[in-house]
Amino acid sequence: MSYFKSKPLHHFMASMWTERLKEKIEKTFECEFELFIEFTCLISWCRGARIGWHSDDNRLYLKQRDFSAVCYLISYAKDFKGGLFRFHSGEPATVAPSAGNVIMYTADDGDIHSVDEITDGKRLTLAMWF
């Protein structure tokens, strides 16, 4: 029963958090129009998981994505090994995940990125697309 009681609260907190992040992206990237949250998901990356170079709008059915955000829920080296986030170009070129940090970037081919293979532990992220 406690699971069902807490579910609406967790949903409310997640909604508040994603809304605040949406506003931050609009301000940071000087968006002319209001953004809409396209998709949000909790991703658990297990040992051996990785993703090669890509943009977040790399399929025809993903072209509505303008921006991406990744919130790190646990920290590199402390909670898992591997799993570094890498940008193909630009600065920073490599991001070492740290709990509570968020990276925001464009979803198009201007921000091609990858995630190195997880070699130990689990990497937990909250990913959002706008």
From TrEMBL:
<protein>
    <recommendedName>
        <fullName>Fe2OG dioxygenase domain-containing protein</fullName>
    </recommendedName>
</protein>
<dbReference type="InterPro" id="IPR039575">
    <property type="entry name" value="P3H"/>
</dbReference>
<dbReference type="GO" id="GO:0032963">
    <property type="term" value="P:collagen metabolic process"/>
</dbReference>
<feature type="domain" description="Fe2OG dioxygenase">
    <location>
        <begin position="27"/>
        <end position="130"/>
    </location>
</feature>
<dbReference type="Pfam" id="PF13640">
    <property type="entry name" value="2OG-FeII_Oxy_3"/>
</dbReference>
<dbReference type="InterPro" id="IPR005123">
    <property type="entry name" value="Oxoglu/Fe-dep_dioxygenase_dom"/>
</dbReference>
<dbReference type="InterPro" id="IPR044862">
    <property type="entry name" value="Pro_4_hyd_alph_FE2OG_OXY"/>
</dbReference>
